[in-house]
Specification:
Elements: E1 17-21, H1 27-36, E2 40-45, H2 49-58, H3 67-73, E3 76-79, H4 86-95, E4 104-107, H5 118-122, E5 126-132, H6 141-145, E6 150-154, H7 160-169, E7 173-176, H8 182-209, H9 215-233, H10 241-244, H11 247-260, H12 265-281, H13 287-301
Parallel strand pairs: 1-2, 1-3, 3-4, 4-5, 6-7
Antiparallel strand pairs: 5-6
């Protein structure tokens, strides 16, 4: 249930016509959630066959048109394109006269704040940066996941209430992010969410190699508990051989990884070193145990696990580095 106080009716944006430029996984979901709040999707643009199918599924009966035509039809335009494409898109729309004065122009990039929309601002648009801190599948389940989802909000101060009201109408929780903090904010989310997928996928692969038939079933309760503990307690939730200072166990892990999954060694060592540093700083790892542990990590960072890998080649056979 949302803990954000609902805005006064006078602060709620009027019912708007909504357009989407870039029918990736995010745009159609946000437009569908705005539709549930009473707004009316009227146009969507998409290039690939997948984006067109996604738009037809999430926004049935909404016509597929060009980006310029989306702006012509909509009061509120969602620019949901990849980060690197956003500046060029905004500049192009402004240069061609597609932007209308008073039009709400919303991008969903985590990297950028409102300044990336300056070309449109000069053309009279009202710029908003609303980034949902959520992973999207491109299916209707995304609309449900927006309930309680935090949005990183950046906008001119005079548009702050309107931006926050739109987020609340989508079921989200607005979190104000200052313009200069957007890159750091986005880096934090990428570190937590994107890298988590890589870690979990690698763990499942290793468990399958170890003979576990259902690695997802084994990891689900463990990772769920670890995530809950971390969110509640931060570094105090650290457990495992690194936090305990079990240098021998960590060395054995690296040896096995070099034998069975050499591509996972660098990631394991980097995360083990980061974990050791945090455990040591928070008094969880005893200094007398940290010395041996850090020695193991440093030695293996140079491609050694007792001298050589399983074939005498530091575990890099077949890898032309």
């Amino acid at each position: 249930m949302s803990t954000v106080q609902q805005p006064d009716p006078s602060e709620r944006p009027a019912r708007l016509t909504v357009g989407v430029v870039g029918a990736g996984r995010v745009g159609p979901a946000l437009a569908a959630s705005l539709q549930l709040a009473g707004h009316r999707p009227v146009a969507v643009s998409g290039v690939s066959d997948a984006s067109r199918r996604r738009a037809e599924t999430m926004l049935p009966d909404v016509p597929l048109v060009s980006p310029a035509e989306v702006l012509r039809r909509a009061d509120l335009v969602l620019l949901t394109v990849p980060d690197d494409a956003l500046p060029g898109l905004v500049a192009g729309l402004a240069e061609t006269g597609a932007v209308r004065p008073g039009q709400l122009l919303v991008h969903t990039s985590g990297r950028y704040g409102a300044r990336v929309l300056d070309p449109a601002l000069r053309a009279g648009a009202l710029p908003l940066a609303l980034h949902p801190a959520m992973t999207f599948t491109g299916t209707p389940v995304d609309v449900q996941r927006l309930a309680g989802c935090s949005f990183g909000v950046t906008a001119p101060e005079e548009l702050r209430l309107a931006a926050e009201a739109l987020v609340i109408e989508m079921g989200g929780e607005p979190e104000w992010i200052f313009e200069e903090n957007r890159p750091l904010y986005h880096a934090a989310l990428a570190l937590g969410a994107n890298h988590l997928v890589t870690l979990v996928a690698q763990a499942m692969e290793l468990l399958r190699t170890a003979g576990v038939e259902a690695p997802d079933r084994m990891l689900g309760p463990l990772l769920g508990a670890a995530l809950d503990n971390a969110l509640r307690s931060g570094d105090a939730a650290l457990t495992g051989p690194v936090a305990r200072g079990d240098a021998g166990t960590v060395a054995a892990h690296v040896t096995e990884l070099r034998r069975h999954a050499p591509q996972a060694v660098d990631g394991y060592l980097a995360m083990a070193r980061a974990t050791a540093d945090r455990a040591l700083a928070h008094g969880l790892l005893k200094p007398e145990l940290a010395e041996d542990l850090l020695g193991v990590l440093a030695k293996n960072a140079h491609g050694a696990d007792g001298g050589t890998g399983p074939t005498g080649t530091n575990g890099t056979e077949g890898n032309p580095r």
